[in-house]
Specification:
Helices cover 5% and strands 45% of the residues. By secondary structure, it is mainly β. It folds into two domains: 2-141, Immunoglobulins (Immunoglobulin-like), CATH 2.60.40.10; 152-227, Immunoglobulin-like (Sandwich), CATH 2.60.40. Strand 15 (206-213) and strand 16 (219-227) form a beta hairpin. It starts with a helix and ends with a strand.
């Protein structure tokens, strides 16, 4: 009876009970891009919060993900080819106590638009019922607008790299932007007025993803921005 209750709690709360073992950052993981892109990715930070080592395998649950979408994962052991959606039992990820690692989840949309969630689960390599982390990844693959006459495929950011301000070219259809770090954490968000720049001088140096939204709130394009 206790085992059944634990399973129900894990199902209802998305594996948050296991976060004591393997901490997942950021809290909200988003993977966004265009259907015309060959592939794009997101970084997921995993930290062993226990006082001892952990040996973990992982799996992806596609749920209602389009069949055309393909995924690839780079874990502590290797980078797997597209189409492999579970770590083989012969290649567990070994985490020392307190150790952190950046896992990469990559998607090849193959031209198919959709907004869906995929679920990623890390579990014990000894007992698959021992869940270390279980979390959703929100995926948005949206193409340029076909109704407003705006060519979102011609939009760009400049100067790139930048030290402080950046601007957006061909920006008539852009109503809002958000800037995310490589872990998917939102670092900056603001409404956009055509011709005006955005100040990111306070952000640390690094690579960021600039997401652009139209007036309806639909994300239309994602571009890389380098901050010096």
């Amino acid at each position: 009876m206790k085992a059944n209750l634990l399973y129900i709690l894990i199902f209802l709360f998305g594996g948050n009970l296991a976060a004591q073992n393997l901490l997942v950052e950021p809290d909200e993981i988003n993977l966004s891009g265009l259907p015309t892109e060959e592939d794009f990715d997101v970084y997921i930070k995993l930290t062993n919060t226990t006082s001892g080592p952990l040996s973990a395998l992982w799996t992806l649950d596609r749920q209602s993900i389009p069949d055309a979408w393909e995924f690839s994962v780079c874990d502590k052991v290797t980078c797997y080819a597209f189409g492999i959606e579970a770590a083989p039992s012969s290649k567990p990820n070994e985490f020392a106590a307190g150790e952190s690692f950046l896992c990469t989840l990559k998607i090849a949309p193959n031209g198919v638009e959709a907004v869906e969630d995929i679920r990623m689960t890390f579990f014990s390599s000894v007992d698959q019922n021992d869940i270390y982390a279980d979390f959703p990844v929100a995926i948005s693959v949206m193409g340029p607008s076909n109704t407003t006459g705006v060519r979102f495929d011609e939009i760009n950011v400049y100067p790139n790299p930048t030290q402080d301000l950046f601007q957006i070219s061909e920006d008539d259809g852009v109503a809002m932007i958000s800037v995310h770090n490589v872990l998917g954490k939102k670092m900056y968000q603001n409404t956009h007025i055509a011709g005006r720049g955005h100040n990111v001088a306070d952000l640390p140096r690094g690579i960021y993803m600039v997401r652009m939204f139209d007036e309806s709130g639909k994300m239309r394009k994602v571009l890389r921005l380098s901050k010096r």
